[in-house]
């Protein structure tokens, strides 16, 4: 019978071998919302660690840019453009990932999303439904469609990482729809961990970001927008609201996180470094809220 010391040596040997090839070598990953920001950096980091990556995004040109970053550096990636809230897009993502992975899919990162803010008494049904569908229904649909590739017993690593927000954990004025959806993804994550962990070893985790420097946190006056189904949605935080928040005084590190820093936390949860972490919500906030 092996001793704890023997098992530690075995684990260390596995990690050394893994690092020499890339922590996600010979694995296939789906990253949604990977055309820019956190999603793009996540796709690039996964590829650098040896993963074959499906870059899914609403914007075809931005998805292609991420794929080019990966392939120019010698990695493997393909783009799938389309609305993640539509079943046809879900099906194309799964089919392309299975093709790319030779019949296997190992990781899903449900990152796609944006905000459509409004105070409670002025939030429309359309605002509510779109944000709920985007941040809870779409991830569920993708995970459900991927079930045949995750509910398998081949001994290979599989993980699902869902992106949440501190708005979902603590609530946020002006974001009833977004906060509710981002809390909902926590419940989905824990359920996946409990259903698919025991027999299949699938790990499911959530990462909840605080302020990360993306189009969702820049000044709204900068003019960033998302366009879905003919609806043009302004993104960002009004300058006056940002000023009222007194910068980063509530963040011990006194700054916003970068998309790369955010992506590294996702990589950590998907990698062997988190092989015994499941059902967890990792808050990545620069210390805000402690």
Count of DSSP E strands? 9
Beginning-to-end CA distance, first to last residue: 44 Å
For this structure, what is the CATH homologous superfamily? NAD(P)-binding Rossmann-like Domain
Radius of gyration: 19 Å
How can the largest sheet be summarized?
7 strands, parallel
Reported CATH architecture: 3-Layer(aba) Sandwich
Low-confidence stretches: 7-12
Give average pLDDT, whole number.
89
Q: Largest sheet, order of strands side by side?
A: 3-2-1-4-5-6-9
Short key terms for the protein model shown above:
globular, oxidoreductase activity, acting on the CH-OH group of donors, NAD or NADP as acceptor, Short-chain dehydrogenase, seven-stranded parallel beta sheet, 290 residues, alpha/beta, two-stranded antiparallel sheet, KR_dom, quinone binding, oxidoreductase, Rossmann fold
């Amino acid at each position: 019978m092996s001793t704890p010391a023997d098992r530690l040596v075995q684990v260390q040997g596995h990690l050394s071998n893994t690092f020499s090839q890339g922590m996600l070598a010979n694995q296939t990953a789906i990253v949604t919302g990977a055309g820019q920001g956190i999603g793009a950096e996540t796709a690039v980091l996964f590829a650098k660690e040896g993963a074959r990556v499906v870059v899914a995004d609403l914007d075809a040109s931005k998805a292609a840019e991420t794929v080019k970053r990966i392939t120019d550096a010698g990695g493997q990636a393909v783009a799938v453009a389309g609305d993640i809230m539509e079943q046809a897009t879900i099906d194309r993502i799964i089919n392309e990932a299975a093709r790319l992975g030779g019949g296997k899919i190992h990781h899903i990162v449900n990152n796609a999303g944006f905000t459509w803010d409004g105070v409670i008494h002025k939030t429309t049904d359309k605002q509510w439904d779109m944000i709920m569908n985007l941040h809870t229904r779409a991830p569920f649909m993708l995970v459900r469609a991927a079930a045949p590739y995750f509910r398998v017993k081949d001994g290979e690593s599989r993980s699902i990482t869902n992106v949440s927000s501190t708005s979902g954990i603590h609530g946020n004025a002006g974001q009833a729809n977004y906060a509710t959806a981002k809390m909902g993804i926590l419940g989905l994550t824990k359920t996946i961990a409990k259903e698919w962990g025991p027999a299949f070893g699938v790990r499911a985790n959530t990462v909840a970001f605080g302020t990360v420097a993306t189009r969702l946190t820049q000044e709204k006056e900068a003019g960033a927008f998302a366009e879905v189904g003919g609806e043009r949605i302004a993104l960002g935080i009004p300058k006056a609201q940002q000023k009222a928040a007194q910068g980063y005084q509530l963040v011990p590190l006194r700054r916003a996180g970068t998309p790369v820093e955010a992506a590294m936390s996702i990589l950590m949860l998907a990698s062997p470094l988190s092989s015994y972490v499941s059902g967890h919500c990792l808050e990545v906030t620069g210390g805000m809220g402690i």
